Amino acid sequence: WVPHELNDCQREVRVETCIALLNRHTNEEILNCIVTCNEKCILFDNRKRSASWLYPGSAPKQCPKRKLTPRKVMVTVWWSSAGVIHHSFLPNVVSITADVYCEELNTMMEKLAHLQPALVNRSSPLLLHDNARPHAAQQTVSKLQELGLEVLRHPPYSPDLAPG
Q1: What's the pLDDT tens digit per position in 117-161?
Q2: Closest to 2 measured CA to CA, from 164, 161, 163, 158
Q3: Domains within the chain, CATH numbers bracketed
Q4: Which listed residue, 7, 37, 84, 163, has the most CB atoms within 10 A of its CB?
Q5: What is the C-alpha separation between 164 and 79, in angstroms, rounded?
Q6: What is the pTM of this model?
Q7: Which Pfam families match (predicted)?
Q8: CA-CA distance, 128 to 79, in Å (whole number)?
Q9: Is 144 exposed, middle or buried (0-12, 13-18, 19+ CB in 10 A)?
Q10: Residues 79, 20: Cα–Cα separation, whole Å
Q11: 2 pLDDT exceeds 50?
Q12: How far apart, in whole angstroms, are the C-alpha atoms of residue 19 and residue 11?
């Protein structure tokens, strides 16, 4: 996250969004209906540092060098107030695309229907995610409509308003 100075209009949108969410929570219990996700790229740094006792003047054992390219994995975690719904590890993924995000949405909804059937059957889960490109892509918007997910407003440059 890069700090960003909000202009007056962005601050106003932020306040309006927060007030709207508070008013909605006053009228209906929405906290138990919110589902959110977060993506994180994890870098494996498995350097093996060998340590051994040596006699004075003796040479240490030679160790082969490791690969220069570090391994990365992208982890996505979906959760609600009841706990973790779904997590996955996406190897060699530099960024989440709309295709990957839509697949994750499908998997999450299948698991949510199994873990919290009342939430899926009685009412529509509310999705809280930021406005990253894969989340705002037309393909994702169509998938959200297909799954019947309502998306809560999330003002730009407001990572503190997301539960992650």
Answers
A1: 988 887 779 998 887 888 889 999 999 999 989 898 877 766 666
A2: 158
A3: 34-44+68-163 (3.30.420.10)
A4: 37
A5: 9
A6: 0.75
A7: Transposase_1
A8: 10
A9: middle
A10: 23
A11: no
A12: 12
Tokens read off for 146: 């297909």
Which of 125, 134, 136, 148 is closest to 104 using CA atoms? 134
CA distance linking residue 32 with residue 125, whole number of Å: 9
| Residue 94: predicted pLDDT | 64
Amino acid identity of residue 137, one-letter, is A
74, 80, 84, 87 alpha-carbon torsion, rounded to 10°: -30
The arrangement of strands across the sheet holding 83-91 comes to: 83-91, 71-80, 34-44, 126-128, 150-151
For 31, the token pair is 């906290």
Token pair for residue 145? 């409509």
pLDDT tens readout for residues 85-99:
999 998 776 678 999
Output b/e per residue, 56-72; b: 16+ Cβ within 10 A.
Answer: eeeeeeeeeeeeeeeee
| Phi, psi (deg, nearest 5) at residue 156 | -65, 150
Give residues with Cβ within 8 angstroms of 157, minimum separation 6: 4, 6, 10
